[in-house]
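Protein: protein-tyrosine-phosphatase
Species: Paenibacillus stellifer
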Amino acid sequence: MLKVLFVCLGNICRSPMAEAVLRHKVKEAGLEHQISVDSAGTGDWHIGKPPHKGTRAVLDSFGISYEGMAARRVVPEDFGGFDYLICMDQSNGANVRKLPGSEKANIMFFMDLLPDESLREVPDPYFTGNFDEVYRLVDAGCSVLLDKLKSQI
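Structure follows.
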């Protein structure tokens, strides 16, 4: 089983959106027994809370489930448990790399999946309010990621 962990700051906007979108794509492809998806944050402000209302609204508009999702923090055990740890921005990556055991993780950045985009980080809609832009990036990047994962199965 290939395991993917998306990481953002508080685990209520970007990373749960990516988790929900990739899970949806994995299910549509019939690969839920071969690919596992999760998300976490580097901060602890929202632990146990559902995705942000803006994230939920965008996901609802596309019929994508986020049922059962609750914010959690990245823990050192994640580093050995996931094949890919995908950070939404450079700050998230720097915070992850400060944690013990991070040298075991295959850390990458989400926007590396979309080299033709001018943005090099997924903007945080908690601050920008632009959940539609984040969805556009997440949807495109998750399609590229799913193709990459399929080639490894």
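Remarks: DSSP finds six helices and four strands in the chain.
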